[in-house]
Amino acid sequence: MEIKITETTAPNAKPDAATLGFGRIFTDHMFMMDYEPDKGWHDARIIPFGPIVLHPAATVLHYGSEIFEGLKAYRRADGKVQLFRPMDNIRRMNDSAERLSLPQIPEEMALEVLLAFVRHEQDWTPSAPGTSLYIRPFLFGNDETLGVHTVHHATFVIIASPVGSYYKEGINPVSIMIEDADVRAVRGGTGYAKCGGNYAASCRAGERAEEKGYSQVLWLDGVERKYIEEVGSMNVMFKVAGEIITPKLTGAILPGVTRRSCIALLKEKGYTVSERLFSVEELQRALSDGTLEEAWGCGTAAVVSPIGRLAYKDKEYTVSGGKIGPVTQYLYDTLTGIQWGKQKDPFGWTLPL
Ligand code: COI
Q: In order of start, what are the domains of the chain with their CATH numbers?
């Protein structure tokens, strides 16, 4: 596919690695292409990073027709840049598009434009330990009418941001509050899709948790408020009396690429991983009788994040003595070792540019 490139006339200086944080600094360019039923995806372009002009009736502004992805490019010690499991993100993006009635992008085309954009911006991939180039593809409905219907016109954009840690705690344990009032998703809804609305609806509980001193909330299922689901920015895993448990993909949970990678790494190491329903009562029991050995979250932005404190109904529990546990550390080291090319990649997960 032809991609037209317009270079910026005002390139920015690359940021100091110490100032990165998450998603605040952007590279000099962005990728865009448009969809119309008779033309398909067309007008692929890399243009200077800047505002997107929308018709005031654009579907996304009224009915939330938007999906997104998150993946990272890593700078290896030899200076080369590589992506981690990009096809997994592309496939999930199309699953999300299908759920939101947005046009899908043929996999080969999606990979081609992603690679073209990341190659163009690769100088922005930082090299300091723990840093990477976070890539955010997003796709939204752009019909210029207020009727509620399947989207016909859509726009696909990719932006990129050099990042450090998602949580201010870095690899130190985060504290999480189990939310028992709001719910994130229900089965049959959009929980498995990476759509903006899921995140918009999570902010109220997130704010309440922050006011109480917790980083994020852990969601329970939307029907019985009984089963553990996910944190929103990451999937969760627990080690209880030797068994590694992660909530099964019921349709209400995001099928995380990092979740899938952690399961593969754990199985390869000989651990039993149970993808099953895990109730908050079972978790409370394990917290009270000391059989909860470790808890951690995993996601592209969050990487592998130890959970050091858990609160439920105004009761607070310390996990793993508030420290990172050995399995969490193993996963963090192995996963990031593969991502940054410090370790062999027996799974074929990395794709050098
Ligand atoms: C990611 O891990 O890439 C995410 O999309 C989570 C988030 C920052 C919303």
A: 4-163 (3.30.470.10), 174-339 (3.20.10.10)
